[in-house]
Amino acid sequence: MTRSRSKPLRLQMMLAMMFGLMVCVFAAPAVAQHAASSKPSKSDLICHTTNPDECYPRVFKPTDEFQTIHEDQDLPKGLHVRMNIWTGQKEAKINVPDENDPSLEGLPVDRAMVVVDTEQHQDQPKIPKGAPEYEPVGKVKGPEHESVAFHEGLKMLKKGAGKTGQALDDAMEGLEDLSHDLYYGLKIAEDSDAVKALLCLMSSQQRPTTEGSIPRDQQAAAILAGTLQNNPTALKEVTKVWPTLVEVECPNTGEALRASVYSSVVPSKNGDGTAHQAAARVKSKVAVINGLIKDSAIRAEFLKEGGMSSLLSILVPHDEEWAGAQRKVGQLVLDNFLDEDMGAVLGQWPKTRKSADEECTADEAQGGEGCWDYHVARIAKATKASKSDWSRELVNRLAAVRKQQSTEEEHKEL
């Protein structure tokens, strides 16, 4: 009897051992998969060179800050995506509903956000390399019924500020609202007399005639910025008449627009009120300059007329009220002169060498081209700027340019 009972017992023990072995076999791949997922495999990265530092994730990893999107990256759903209309460069971050983008502060722009659903775009064919560039604007279609107030406002603007009083302040406010529209922005740009009137107002300190209204120089700048922002067709219309416009001598300044437009951003020319009011005026005017110098001919003239010195003067004030205006200046410099990904043409600026810090603390030297490095670094240090902040990025890009300048000079000496 004892012997007959031992067979079932041995059979049960063998079955238990086999079951335990099967559990181990099936569990091993799961453990291995978990271990492998703890660090990215080569298939999770995209590498176009042999340098591992130049690799980036195949799936875009969003953060709270905007980051550049590579063309061959896959995008998760629900991102906040923005695109530079001039270059097509895309950036994305984690989407926060109703969030205000600080980089748009002070700019009259069409605030639009794209929430990407990648599953809807996976089957779209890729544009072949070397294909003709797509023109996003084309013919601007007008509204079914044009605004009568718009045309009356333009007439009033061209008539002048002397006799129109409160009516002109109200008309300019209406023109600013409509200037963001592609059609009305183009209509403003096509009217050279209206553009001339706006530039002359922007170049002078024009107080409002009614309490609570925006200063007319600031309002004129806001209208022009709205006209040029994201509206390449409007910019083309302005550039057609620009050689004639810059020769105009405005009655309120006694200077030709060639000089007064670029110097209108200097803080001392906007300082008859509080620092906050002066900075608001300057921000609007910097936005106009940023729109104008997208044209290569105007950009060359801007550099020739000392426009960069005028911009540098905005970085000199230490008051916190100037932070927004200073950020606009930094973004203008990066986008137009130093960041090729944002459409900048490299090599146009800066041309001179970096100045010693002690030279840049003297009043007479603060606006020198070689002092950009000092003032930007001072702002970055004072604000404890992060790596993604405009000031830190500008410091790094200026340092790269200076290094290249030194290398080129050494080669010339040899």
From TrEMBL:
What transmembrane ranges does the database entry give?
none
Keyword rRNA processing on entry: no
Q: Which InterPro entries match?
A: ARM-like, Sil1_fungi
Q: Does the keyword Ribosomal protein apply?
A: no
Question: Matching Gene3D superfamilies, A to Z?
Answer: Leucine-rich Repeat Variant
Q: What Pfam families does the entry give?
A: SIL1
Provide the leader sequence positions: 1-32
Swiss-Prot/TrEMBL keywords: Endoplasmic reticulum, Protein transport, Signal, Translocation, Transport
> Which superkingdom, per the lineage?
Eukaryota
On assembly, the entry states:
Interacts with KAR2.
Record family assignment: Belongs to the SIL1 family.
UniProt-recorded name of the protein? Nucleotide exchange factor SIL1
Which species expresses this protein natively? Epichloe bromicola
- Taxonomic classification, please? Eukaryota, Fungi, Dikarya, Ascomycota, Pezizomycotina
Annotated gene: g2954
